[in-house]
Design goal:
Blueprint lengths: L59 H14 L6 H18 L5 H25 L14 H4 L4 H19 L4 H16 L10 H10 L1 H10 L3 H6 L1 H25 L1 H7 L4 H5 L3 H23 L3 H20 L5 H27 L2
Length: 354
């Protein structure tokens, strides 16, 4: 407030001073922010890598599981099929040698039979991988059930074929050349049921090809000797084709209804209601051919005794399959193992006791 002097006349010159009033200054309130301790940023500490536990290079339990499935794929748990291939091979070895064959040749052909039969089973399941799930008896096979892949099956087949061929390389040139035909027959057989009603006959050729190979292994070193035994070799081969047709037709009778449904072909379907009589005729034809083998092979009474046992077993089979029951037909098929054994024992004893 400004002090002004009085201008009125006669009035004393009085200066009036207005009192000063202290006005507090008003401003924004002072806000105190509490200080928060912020930790200094530091680089993350590198932790030590976890200790690597030593492990084995492969899982042994997993490997064991796969090997079991591969063995099932190759039917190594069912030796009857291999024995049905082995007996005619042994017939040929003993007939070619006219006595006990060379031990090395016997071992090569015995192991080779098991390998080739296993390879045949693998390629058969590969060819039928879409049909087997539709058939009651085969839907549990590894490929059909999906426990083995097609790639694994091919690898197993190639491995078995290669091992068998390596064995053949231990024989002579003629046997090696014949083995190529045998491999072709084994590979193509499984596909025959799609094109012909006679796959059992083709199987007889595939299974029986070990016969000329056995004669070649024993006699192939001398071409003249091999040519001399060719009639006996051919007769035994044809007899075995008949024998294979007999037991594989019995086997096909087990699956006849399923084969008709899925479109597969077999002699069991071809023969129809005449299957049992036709099998009987084939059995008699086989026994007649084996009698001619006795003449060519200079066999004696033990062989004829073995052939008599085989005839009795055939009679039992005919009686067994008369009802065409699945289980009965399968039992008759398995019984042929004893037929092959009886004939082989007869051949062995015939030469041993001459």
């Amino acid at each position: 407030m400004v002090d002004k002097p009085s201008t009125r006349k006669g009035a004393p010159n009085v200066r009036v001073t207005a009192p000063k009033i202290a006005v507090p200054k008003v401003g924004a309130p002072k806000i105190t922010v509490p200080k928060v301790a912020v930790p200094k940023a530091t680089a993350p500490r590198k932790s030590a890598p976890p200790a690597i536990q030593p492990t084995s290079r492969f899982d042994s339990s997993r490997m064991r599981e796969r090997l079991v499935e591969y063995a099932r794929l190759a039917r190594m748990d069912r030796p009857v099929g291999a024995l049905l291939l082995l007996w005619p091979t042994w017939w040929a070895l003993w007939l070619a040698a006219r006595d006990f064959p060379p031990i090395s040749t016997l071992i090569i052909f015995t192991v080779g039979v098991w390998l080739m039969r296993s390879a045949g089973c693998v390629i058969n399941d590969f060819a039928d991988r879409k049909l087997d799930p539709e058939v009651k008896r085969t839907r549990g096979r590894p490929l059909a059930a999906g426990t083995v892949s097609t790639r694994e099956a091919i690898a197993v087949f190639v491995t078995l074929i290669v091992l068998a061929f390596l064995l053949v390389l231990l024989t002579n040139k003629l046997t090696i050349e014949l083995s190529l035909i045998g491999a072709f027959l084994a590979i193509t057989y499984p596909f025959m049921k799609r094109y012909t009603y006679l796959p059992q006959v083709y199987l007889g050729c595939a299974f029986g090809w070990s016969i000329p190979m056995a004669f070649a292994a024993v006699k192939g070193g001398d071409w003249k000797q091999f040519v001399a035994v060719l009639p006996l070799c051919a007769l035994l081969f044809l007899a075995n084709v008949i024998f294979s047709t007999v037991y594989d037709t019995e086997y096909a009778m087990v699956d006849r209804d399923d084969d008709l449904r899925v479109g597969a072909k077999s002699t069991a379907i071809l023969f129809g209601d005449a299957d049992v009589p036709i099998i009987g005729v084939l059995m008699v034809t086989f026994l007649g051919a084996m009698l001619l083998v006795a003449q060519r092979g200079h066999l004696h009474w033990p062989y004829f005794a073995g052939l008599g046992v085989a005839a009795a077993l055939f009679a039992y089979q005919i009686w067994t399959i008369r009802t065409r029951d699945r289980d009965a037909c399968f039992a008759a098929f398995r019984n042929n193992n004893w037929v092959g054994l009886a004939i082989w024992v007869g051949i062995v004893l015939s030469y041993a006791l001459k």
